[in-house]
Fold this protein.
Amino acid sequence: MSLLERIRVTQSFLESKGIQSPEFGLILGSGLGELAEEIENAVVVDYADIPNWGQSTVVGHAGRLVFGDLSGRKVLALQGRFHFYEGNKMETVTFPVRVMKALGCQGVIVTNAAGGIGYGPGTLMAISDHINMTGQNPLIGDNLETFGPRFPDMSDAYSKAYRQVAHRIAKEQGIDLGEGVYIGVTGPTYETPAEIRAFKTMGADAVGMSTVPEVIVAAHSGMKVLGISAITNFAAGFQSELNHEEVVEVTQQIKGNFKTFIKAVLKDL
Ligand code: HPA
């Protein structure tokens, strides 16, 4: 089956489960999936039951899709995403974004845990732009003309309009929201201090192992994106050591603010 056919099969399957006309996709990163628990009139589908879908393997990722009402909007939330470092093909990593578009989502909120280059642990950062350091591009291969052009423009991949809403809400809620460039790597190693020094010179403010592939695919089909990084640690060389436990722990501390913030933003997008 072609990619397009597989997208259609998955779309029909989800529609048959009652997932009709979502307005926004929500991709919830490490430890941030709890937001999906607040979705009302929820239709919940385990990843294992969805045709053509990948499987989550990372601790802190639930591996289920939740559709329903959040802040008066119809949302389709992914509790757990697919990473390239898990051995997934880029097509698997970005397949959910294709399906979100096929189902009718106009916008997507993409969240992640990230290492801070310009920002410290506990901060939320609105992503203004990205640098793709993965050495991959999910659009390599036949172009899906029904989704978008062969050579997509990435100039406004992270919607300025969405960011303005995010900053206004942050101000109202007294949340310290930074803004900056996310540099996406494959992982699974954390970076070396030399890499982080290089990334800093390149203009990066945060580093992480996700988001870039999904945003490329969203931009391809004209979906608007709000990207939010939860900074969980100082990037390599700026603190003594890095580990996943710390990332999960700091996410636990941020998630209260994060949930209130995202819900309020969603209302005004
Ligand atoms: N580097 C890459 N990915 C991350 C980091 C980091 O320091 N922290 C959380 N995700």
About this structure: The pocket of hypoxanthine is lined by residues 113-115, 190-191, 207-209, 232-233, 235, 242, 247 (CB under 6 Å). Residues 25 and 249 are 26 Å apart (CA to CA).
